[in-house]
Amino acid sequence: MKRAVLLYNAAAGKGKIEKNVDRIVEIFRQADYDMQPLPIRFGANPFDWCGEIDLAVIAGGDGTINYVVNAMMQRNLSVNIGVIPAGTANDFAGALGMSNNILRAARQIAEGEVELIDCGKAEQMGSGELIYFVNIFSFGIFTTTSQRTPEELKHRIGKMAYVVAAFKELRNIHGIPLTITTDSEAFYYPTLLGLVFNGETAGRMPLARKSSLRDGVFDCIFLQKRSPVVSAGDMLLYMIGIKTRAVKYLRTSQLTLVTPMDEQTDVDGQRGGQFPLRLNCLHGALKVVCPKEESIWQRKK
Fold this sequence. Notes:
By secondary structure, the protein is of the alpha+beta class. The protein has two domains: 2-118 and 285-300, 3-Layer(aba) Sandwich (Rossmann fold), CATH 3.40.50.10330; 121-282, Tumour Suppressor Smad4 (Sandwich). It has helices at residues 16-19, 21-30, 62-74, 91-96, 102-110, 145-148, 151-157, 160-168, 228-239, 296-300, and strands spanning 2-8, 33-39, 55-60, 80-85, 113-124, 129-133, 136-140, 176-181, 186-197, 218-224, 247-252, 254-258, 265-267, 270-271, 277-290.
């Protein structure tokens, strides 16, 4: 019998994971897994208590997945992982094709196939500190909103909690003098917003239309700093598919970001590193159990 662990965030999804732990374990038992349920204690490495395992199933939102992946990388582990979406946005799980129904998602993992999935790495130049991300690295206006959004508000009104928190940040709009170096170019760009996608969506908004978790490159969007109204219009035009010179889009496997400002960054809704930063797309670094080919309707059941 194969050994698995269920690493779950008891606070995610209004506690629905904790209420269904026994049912999830039973699904994996029927698939010949001996599964140990283990609630995540943030601040501790969950792999310190797992022992030898064949599969780690992560139940929570993007921030929970980020926490577990970073814990795994810190231990230099190569473990198959599965994702049960139980957060607010669930961008990474959505890109994998996981069902929004947690029991259906558990069955997708129990019956799924391992695929090699890209992972982002952010290196804080100077200190050498490493932070990994599965979906998105971001900075600038609104990008640290998720860090400041109260859990209680997310549980009460869902994704609208981010909108409420974002409005409070309008008074802090400022440009970031940024030097960007990619695989093929280096340039200066006064930036209001920077998004580096490993995944496909941010808050389930499909901003990186060409992005893939399996292509070995980041899809990057940089919004040029202009007046707040004009910049908002530039981003809106981009979102509906109209090109504007005030939005810089590029694809690269690595990039360096340098600014003299002490600017906060975000990885998957969690606190990121400090500038200057070097970002690398680690092609196929994660072994993720993905759903077998099936219809979109089946995935959403």
